[in-house]
TrEMBL record:
This is S-adenosylmethionine:tRNA ribosyltransferase-isomerase. Its main location: cytoplasm. GO terms for biological process: tRNA queuosine(34) biosynthetic process. GO terms for cellular component: cytoplasm. It comes from Luteibacter rhizovicinus DSM 16549.
Amino acid sequence: MKKSDFDFDLPPDLIAQAPLARRSGSRLLVVDVGAHTKKDRKFYELPEMLQPGDLLIFNDTRVLPARLYGRKDTGGEVEILIERVTGPHEARAQLGVSKKPKEGGRIELADGSMITVLGREGEFFLLRFESEEPLERLLSRLGEMPLPPYIERGAEEADNERYQTVFAREPGAVAAPTAGLHFDEELLAKLRARGVEMGYVTLHVGAGTFQPMRAEDVRDHVMHREWLNVGAGLVEKIRETRAAGGRVVAVGTTVVRALESATVEGVLRPFAGETQIFIFPGYKITSVDALITNFHLPQSTLLMLVSALAGKEAILESYRYAVLQRYRFFSYGDAMLIVPSKTS
């Protein structure tokens, strides 16, 4: 299986550069794979598509303002994208700089505080922030929202709210779980009134989610690591939902990754730790019955994940339809509700 098998033509003007005024005002393409149907809906109509007793599972990670700017001790400007906070004063990060710093190199931030380069792990640099201030507090003061590379503008003040879900509570991500961005408090209230249950996992989305696949053979790709937590209470809620005939609906691919990482021999168990799970066609997803997700990049691991759930041809055909209907793509774009067939 090749990454080129997951390519599609996407006009650049369909890549959303900013969110809509209303979170739930985005479009929703409902794809029922078993029934071979596609319906164009609005996201705020989601309660009509769910039944009392269905369980929506969200990722409650909170995005850190993880992009910083500084200057090397040799004078060159540096853009720092935190990939993961690893301690009160330490982090792993990508550095945008013309000449990569060596171990022991120093970077000065805008407020005069210093960073020491401790070493390197592949494409990531290990950094120590030489400040008594905890790193998360420093980021909240100096950092900016780490908008994805395909958004061709700088982060603005409005992104501090809009590139964050309304239910975000566990800080640690450097990219948003974007399917959750469509939910506002009004929609959540309507879902509760409908009798839809809700649960949460935590998966801290890393900057590696935007890294392109370099291996042409899908099986040669090595996934980035991400930390997750699937609690015992959620595991029990999922068991009860299915026992009562309800559906488990994941809000985002990160929820699928979390639940599948916590599934051992077909049994979902509580789990906290790191995952490098890579889900592509041939992998049988058992933890969810439907998925709400945004539209993903060509040849990306996330496109492969949704293809594993619903079938590659069904997904690529749906993407071609979405392009023709001028859906908005990627993080600030529109969404899909995918109901796989029983046999996919």
